[in-house]
C-alpha cells in the first residue's frame, strides 16, 4: 500500500473519472496513492502521435506487484487444463495369467505365479500410470484478480502498455505498415491487440493475420499468461474502460473473494450449456 | 405399430419442409440454410403485462454489489461504526478501509510455547492493522502512545513497511478500532 512517503499535492481531492460513473474507485480517498496516467495514441502514422492523456485506476495499474501470485496464476493456467488419458494395465488387468505357469520347485526356473507378472514379457505394469487423471483446480477469485492487476501494473510500469484510441484509426491493412509502425514505436517482437469484442477492425485483422507474433483478442480473453508472454499490450480506450469497470466491479461484489470452487455451484450452468440447441428429432448442427 | 407411426410422422415432418420450399420461387442454392436447418415453430399464447409494484420484494432480494459508504450525516449508527473524515486528516499516513467500509483490523492467534505443566500450547493473540499508506512508522508511534495511555502497560508492535501493516501484541481489537476512529480514518 505504500506508494510515496510524501503527499502528492495534486492527488488530494482527485477522483478518477471514468466513463462508467456507477463504479466508484476504492482508493480515491487515499492521498498517498499516485494516479498512473497513460497516453492515448493513434495508429494512423508510423511515428508515435499522442492524442490524449488518460488516468488509470491505481488499484489495477499501480497495485503492489505480487510476483508470487502472478506466478501462481501462470502455473494454474498452464496446468489446470491438463488431462492424462493413458492407463497402464496392471498384472490383474492383463489377459491371462490366472494359473501358476510351472511348479514352485524342482524345475530350475525362477519362481513364477502368473505369466502377466511385471518381470514377464507382455506382463502388466507394477507402478504404471493409472487411468484418466486431471490436474484441474481453480484459484480463488482474489488471487486471480491480484494476478491480473500485478501483470497490468508490470506492463504499465515497464512502458509496455499502449492505449490506442481505436483500431479503426489504423490507416493501412498492409502488414508491413503495421510491422514498421511497431518497429518505429519500439513495441518489440510480440504485440497483443485487445479490443472490446471479437469484431475487430478489418484492417487490423488483415495486417495481424500475416504477422505470427502479433495477435488480436477480445477483452474477455485477457489473462496473466498472455499479458506476460507478449512484449507489448495494445488496448483500445473502450477496452481499457471496460476492463477497469469489470475488475473494479469484482472488487465491489458482495460475495467473498476467497470463494472456494465447488462443482455444485457451476453444475446447472455446465449441464445447461447446450440446452437451447437441443431438437427432439435432428442432431445439433455444428 | 406405435413405433412405425412415429417414423411415418417424422417423415411427414421432413416432407412438410420440402413442400413449403416447393411452393416458393426461391432456388435451393439461393438460401441453402433454409433447407439445412430444421424449422422450429413455437406456439406461445399472447400475454399482457400488468403493472405491479415490486418494491416490497426487491428490498428483500440479495444485493450483488457492496453499497457505497454511508455518510457521517446519515446519523449516529447503533453499531458504533463511524464514517471516515472527508477530506482525510492532515497526518503523514493514511489508513484505508476494507471492502466492506470497516477499519482494517484482523485478529491472529499464533502458537507461543508448550506449557510443560499442562502439556498444552500457549497462544498469543495479535491484532493486525493493515492498509496503511504513507509514513508507517509515524502511525506506529501514534498508535503506541495511544494504546499505552489507554492501557497503562507497554505494548509490542511489529511494523511491516512494505505491506503497510502493524501487528500489535497486548491490546484488544476494540481499542485499535477506537484509535482508527479517533484519528479520523
UniProtKB/TrEMBL annotation, chain A:
GO CC terms: mitochondrial inner membrane; ribonucleoprotein complex; ribosome
Cell compartment(s), UniProt: Mitochondrion
Gene3D superfamilies: 3.40.1370.10
InterPro entries associated with the record: Ribosomal_uL4 (IPR002136), Ribosomal_uL4-like (IPR013005), Ribosomal_uL4_dom_sf (IPR023574)
Record's keyword annotation contains Amino-acid biosynthesis: no
GO molecular function: structural constituent of ribosome
Principal subcellular localization: mitochondrion
Keywords: Mitochondrion, Ribonucleoprotein, Ribosomal protein
Keyword Ribonucleoprotein attached: yes
Family indicated by similarity: Belongs to the universal ribosomal protein uL4 family.
Entry protein name: Large ribosomal subunit protein uL4m
Organism for this UniProt entry: Panagrellus redivivus (Microworm)
TrEMBL record, chain B:
Location(s), subcellular: Mitochondrion
PANTHER family: LARGE RIBOSOMAL SUBUNIT PROTEIN ML49, MITOCHONDRIAL 39S RIBOSOMAL PROTEIN L49
Record GO biological process: translation
Similarity remark: Belongs to the mitochondrion-specific ribosomal protein mL49 family.
Protein name: Large ribosomal subunit protein mL49
GO cellular component: mitochondrial large ribosomal subunit
Superkingdom of source: Eukaryota
Keyword Ribonucleoprotein: yes
UniProt KW Mitochondrion keyword: yes
GO function term, MF aspect, one: structural constituent of ribosome
Keyword vocabulary terms for this entry: Mitochondrion, Ribonucleoprotein, Ribosomal protein
A Pfam family this chain is assigned to: Img2
InterPro entries to which the protein is assigned, alphabetical: Ribosomal_mL49 (IPR007740)
Amino acid at each position: 500500500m505504500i506508494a510515496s512517503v510524501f503527499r502528492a499535492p495534486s492527488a488530494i481531492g482527485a477522483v478518477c473519472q471514468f466513463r462508467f460513473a456507477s463504479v466508484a474507485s476504492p482508493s480515491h480517498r487515499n492521498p498517498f496513492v499516485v494516479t498512473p496516467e497513460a497516453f492515448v495514441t493513434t495508429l494512423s502514422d508510423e511515428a508515435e502521435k499522442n492524442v490524449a492523456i488518460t488516468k488509470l485506476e491505481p488499484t489495477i495499474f499501480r497495485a503492489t506487484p505480487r510476483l508470487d501470485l502472478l506466478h501462481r496464476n501462470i502455473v494454474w493456467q498452464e496446468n489446470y487444463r491438463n488431462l492424462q488419458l493413458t492407463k497402464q494395465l496392471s498384472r490383474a488387468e492383463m489377459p491371462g495369467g490366472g494359473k501358476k505357469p510351472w511348479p514352485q520347485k524342482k524345475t530350475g526356473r525362477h519362481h513364477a505365479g502368473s505369466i502377466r507378472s511385471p518381470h514377464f514379457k507382455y506382463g502388466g505394469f507394477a507402478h504404471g500410470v493409472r487411468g484418466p487423471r486431471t490436474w484441474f483446480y481453480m484459484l480463488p477469485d482474489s488471487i486471480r484478480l491480484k494476478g491480473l492487476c500485478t501483470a497490468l501494473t508490470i506492463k504499465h510500469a515497464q512502458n509496455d502498455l499502449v492505449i490506442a484510441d481505436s483500431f479503426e484509426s489504423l490507416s493501412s491493412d498492409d502488414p508491413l505498415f503495421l510491422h514498421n509502425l511497431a518497429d518505429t514505436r519500439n513495441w518489440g517482437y510480440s504485440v497483443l491487440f485487445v479490443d472490446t469484442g471479437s469484431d475487430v477492425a478489418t484492417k487490423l485483422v488483415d495486417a495481424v493475420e500475416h504477422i505470427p507474433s502479433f495477435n488480436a483478442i477480445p477483452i474477455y480473453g485477457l489473462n496473466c499468461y498472455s499479458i506476460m508472454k507478449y512484449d507489448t499490450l495494445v488496448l483500445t480506450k473502450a477496452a481499457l474502460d471496460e476492463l477497469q469497470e469489470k475488475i473494479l466491479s469484482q472488487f465491489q461484489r458482495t460475495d467473498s473473494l476467497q470463494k472456494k470452487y465447488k462443482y455444485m455451484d457451476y453444475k446447472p450452468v455446465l449441464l445447461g450449456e447446450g440446452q437451447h440447441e437441443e431438437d427432439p428429432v435432428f442432431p445439433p448442427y455444428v | 405399430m406405435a413405433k412405425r407411426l412415429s417414423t411415418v410422422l417424422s417423415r411427414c415432418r421432413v416432407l412438410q419442409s420440402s413442400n413449403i420450399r416447393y411452393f416458393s420461387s426461391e432456388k435451393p442454392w439461393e438460401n441453402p440454410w433454409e433447407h439445412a436447418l430444421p424449422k422450429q415453430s413455437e406456439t406461445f399464447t399472447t400475454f399482457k403485462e400488468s403493472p405491479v409494484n415490486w418494491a416490497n420484494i426487491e428490498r428483500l432480494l440479495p444485493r450483488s454489489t457492496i453499497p457505497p459508504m454511508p455518510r457521517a450525516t446519515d446519523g449516529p449508527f447503533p453499531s458504533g461504526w463511524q464514517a471516515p473524515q472527508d477530506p482525510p486528516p492532515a497526518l503523514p499516513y493514511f489508513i484505508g478501509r476494507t471492502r466492506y467500509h470497516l477499519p482494517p483490523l484482523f485478529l491472529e492467534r499464533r502458537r507461543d510455547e508448550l506449557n510443560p505443566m499442562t502439556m498444552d500450547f500457549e497462544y498469543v493473540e495479535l491484532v493486525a492493522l493493515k492498509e496503511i499508506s504513507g509514513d508507517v512508522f509515524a502511525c506506529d508511534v501514534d498508535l503506541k502512545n495511544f494504546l499505552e495511555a489507554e492501557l497503562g502497560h507497554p505494548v509490542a508492535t511489529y511494523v511491516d513497511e512494505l505491506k503497510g501493516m502493524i501487528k500489535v501484541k497486548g491490546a484488544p481489537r476494540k481499542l485499535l478500532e477506537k484509535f482508527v476512529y479517533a484519528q479520523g480514518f
